[in-house]
Every structure is written in C-alpha cells, then in structure tokens.
Specification:
alpha+beta; 7-stranded mixed beta sheet
Length: about 200
C-alpha cells in the first residue's frame, strides 16, 4: 500500500515537471524566435523598448475590429521612451505568411516626443503630427490588418524601432526600401504580438 502511494506520488511529480517544462518552453520559445525574426529585418540592435496595446495583451488574440474581417483599422499602441532617439518607426509583420514575412504596416519618422498611437491611423502617406507611411505588402498605403488564409492562425508582431535620425525615404515607397533605410538608423527595438486565425 505504501509502495503504491509512493509510486503515485513519483508519477504525479514527473507529470508536473513535464507539464511545467513544456509550458515554459511554449512561453519562451515564441519570444526568442520573434527576436530573431525582428533582428533579421532591422539588424542586431539591443532590445530596450517596452511596447503594449490596450486592445490586446501580449500573446493573446487580435480583436476582429483590427483585421480584414472587421473594420481593418490599426490598433492603439504605446511604447517607452528611448534616450538618444530622434524618431521612431512602427513595423507590423506576419512571419507565418505562406511566402515568408509579410509586411502589414510601416509608419516612420514619428517624432521622439510621440510615444503612442491612437487606433485608426489614417491610411495616407503623411499623417500630420505623427509620421509618414510606406506601402504595405498588400500594395496599399498604411495599415493592413491580419488576414491569414482560412484554416490558419498566424502571429502578428508590432515592433517599435528607435531611430538616431530621420529616415530619408519618400512616403508611399516600397516596404522593403523603407525597411532597409530604417535598418541603417535603428538603435533599439521592442515589440508586442498577438495571434489571429480564420
């Protein structure tokens, strides 16, 4: 009887250890992979910006209103200030797209005194008092919300990049050209992300 109780306790302990190991791996793995994805786009710069959204929590679900199935408006974002930054850029990507990283949004040359964006940034090249916007990979100006293929669930990463100077790229330029120019001026980054499936 005592032996049976000990065996049950050992099995339960092993089960708990396996659960918490898997849970921690599942919690930390996406973060490390996201950091690698971001650095592949903007270079190996330090991570030093806290990014949040009042619309969703880190690793949760993007509300439908901010997707192509809803109103397709940009969500609110907030970030911590970076010493030495003259401008910021916000980049939204889908790293799980069928053909590779898909750029949903780039808004750049955001003045250093601006550390938040309200929801529903206008989809035009120049947003007065906020910044400039490039094309996205949909071929449109400004924000393009999550719109994964039916039957799939993708990550959507909102990265804020601190810039040491103004990005010298015309608004409405291609996302790749804009991203390359951001990379040359990037000094720090941070991100939040959420999922959306259809």
């Amino acid at each position: 009887m005592v032996l049976a109780v000990i065996l049950i306790a050992v099995i339960a302990t092993i089960g708990l250890l396996l659960y918490y190991t898997a849970h921690e791996a599942g919690r930390t793995q996406p973060t490390s992979s996201i950091d690698a994805i971001i650095k592949s786009l903007i270079g190996d710069i330090p991570k030093g910006i806290e990014v949040t959204s009042s619309a969703f929590t880190y690793g949760a679900t993007v509300p439908k209103v901010y997707t192509c199935d809803g109103e397709d408006i940009s969500p609110p974002l907030r970030w911590s200030k970076v010493e030495g930054a003259r401008y910021y850029a916000v980049i939204m990507i889908d790293p799980d797209a069928p053909k590779g990283i898909f750029i949903h949004w780039i808004i750049y040359n955001i003045p250093s005194n601006v550390t938040s964006l309200k929801a529903n940034i206008p989809k035009k090249e120049t947003v007065q008092g906020i910044g400039l916007q490039s094309l996205n990979d949909f071929g449109r100006i400004g924000y393009g919300g999550p719109c994964p293929p039916h039957g799939s669930k993708h990550r959507y990463i909102f990265t804020v990049v601190a810039l040491r100077d103004r990005v010298n790229v015309d608004p409405g330029s291609s996302p790749i050209n804009t991203l390359n120019s951001i990379k040359e001026l990037a000094i720090s980054y941070g991100f939040t992300y959420a999922y959306y499936g259809r």
